[in-house]
Write a sequence for this structure.
């Protein structure tokens, strides 16, 4: 028997099949030959939430959820966060290698050049209600970019594709900042090409007096590290949305808008917002135990805990926890830090969490930093989206160049009625 095969006996028919194995995976289409009768459709795999389905082969990000390891293009996230900035990491994700000095200069200059948004895009943001959810505004604005750059639909032109990549990475902070300032009813600050990506972002967000705003280097570095940590995470919900929508070959703005919608949900990028609400609701260390009891009783989930892939401490959460201390030295501590630390301490010792292998994820501590930087909680997922745009675009480009990729179109198990006759009275009523 060849070693890289899987022998399957169909007990309905007694037939035997040999399925080829590669990298611990069978080809799902090989199951279709397994039929009970000749006109049978063949076997499918039922996998809601794709918990055990590989949808692509990728060279971008590697996660070992058991060990708590995260690598971008083979490099440990801890080293990248310490040694490199967000735009260098974005380049690495997209091109597969860290940039040389020359490549970096070209990359950053292209990105700075594309940072300004069309004035009508600002008008579009102006038209949203001030109390609108920021992710809804960002999603709609990114979708609207497809109407301003119709050439983006020409995906075959390599240079054209690159332009959309520069533009989206460049304009996400501008859009995010415009959304924040619209909510706060403050005038927009245009991008400044002279500043670093993150200093420019902070300036567009927080500048009040044109001549005096210079972000503190610790704050600038902290936000940059947060962008690095959020830049990619293999086939998560929003990246899956990006790839899935991109598989029908629309422009990248339409696919990115779908990814932003996916990221907005509380089980994904919206969790950081909910962590802060939860910590506020708990309010003090002495009320943590009671909160954990409610989680144990199944009344609620502990937000910022648990992960589909990590069954160990999320390495990004470790970095953010350390980063929080650096930031708090500059800004003064966040009173909710004590609640978070106590919550983590109790949860990590609690049988409910130990048994289910639930550890803090990337969202557990990030909100505490965002809050002391001056962001309202509803803006936290937007910051996540700015970082994750780098990963979405790298995954988009990879899927475009992958000859195995097809239009995403899952199957279903149909459980509805079989063929029925329409009652006569219903069809007649349409002509009234
Ligand atoms: N609090 C309490 N119990 C939890 C939690 C949690 N945060 N997460 C999982 N569980 C429990 C479930 O109730 C379930 O228990 P059971 O076996 O008794 O039914 C068990 O752990 C497994 O949970 P699933 O929901 O099946 O695990 P899944 O892999 O689908 O969930 C998820 C992953 C959605 C992230 C989940 O852990 C969760 O809801 N966490 C809170 C939200 C959050 O922090 N999301 C951010 C994730 S990171 C990111 O997207 C950037």
């Amino acid at each position: 028997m060849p070693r890289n095969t899987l022998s399957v006996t169909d007990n309905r028919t007694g037939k035997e099949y040999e399925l080829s194995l590669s990298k611990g995976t069978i080809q799902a289409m090989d199951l279709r030959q397994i039929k009970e009768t000749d006109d049978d459709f063949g076997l499918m795999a039922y996998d809601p939430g794709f918990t055990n389905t590989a949808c692509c082969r990728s060279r971008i990000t590697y996660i070992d959820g058991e060990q708590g390891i995260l690598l971008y293009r083979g490099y440990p996230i801890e080293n990248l966060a310490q040694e490199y900035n967000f735009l260098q990491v974005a380049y690495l994700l997209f091109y597969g290698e860290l940039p040389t000095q020359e490549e970096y200069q070209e990359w950053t200059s292209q990105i700075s050049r594309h940072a300004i948004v069309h004035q009508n895009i600002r008008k579009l943001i102006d038209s949203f209600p001030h109390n609108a959810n920021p992710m809804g505004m960002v999603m709609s604005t990114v979708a609207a970019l497809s109407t301003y750059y119709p050439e983006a639909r020409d995906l075959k032109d390599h240079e054209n594709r690159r332009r959309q990549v520069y533009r989206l990475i460049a304009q996400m902070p501008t859009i995010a900042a415009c959304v924040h300032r619209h909510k706060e009813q403050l005038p927009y600050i245009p991008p400044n090409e002279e500043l670093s990506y993150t200093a420019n972002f902070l300036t567009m967000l927080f500048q009040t007096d044109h001549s005096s705003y210079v972000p503190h280097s610790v704050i600038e570095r902290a936000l940059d590290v947060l962008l690095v940590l959020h830049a990619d995470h293999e086939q998560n919900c929003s990246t899956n949305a990006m790839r899935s929508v991109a598989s029908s070959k629309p422009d990248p703005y339409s696919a990115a808008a779908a990814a932003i919608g996916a990221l907005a949900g509380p089980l994904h990028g919206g969790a950081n917002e909910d962590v802060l609400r939860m910590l506020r609701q708990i309010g003090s260390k002495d009320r943590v135990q009671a909160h954990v009891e409610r989680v144990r009783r199944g009344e609620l989930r502990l937000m910022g805990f648990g992960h589909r892939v990590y069954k160990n401490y999320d390495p990004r959460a470790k970095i953010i926890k350390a980063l929080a201390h650096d930031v708090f030295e500059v800004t003064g501590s966040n009173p909710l830090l004590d609640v978070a630390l106590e919550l983590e301490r109790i949860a990590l010792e609690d049988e409910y969490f130990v048994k289910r292998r639930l550890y803090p994820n990337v969202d557990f501590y990030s909100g505490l930093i965002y809050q002391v930087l001056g962001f309202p909680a509803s803006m936290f997922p937007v910051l996540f989206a700015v970082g994750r745009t780098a990963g979405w675009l790298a995954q988009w480009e990879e899927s475009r160049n992958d000859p195995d990729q097809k239009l995403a179109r899952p199957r279903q198990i149909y459980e509805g009625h079989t063929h029925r006759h329409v009652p006569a009275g219903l069809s007649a009523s349409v002509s009234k």
Summary: Strands lie at 5-10, 15-22, 25-26, 61-64, 69-72, 75-76. The radius of gyration is 24 Å.
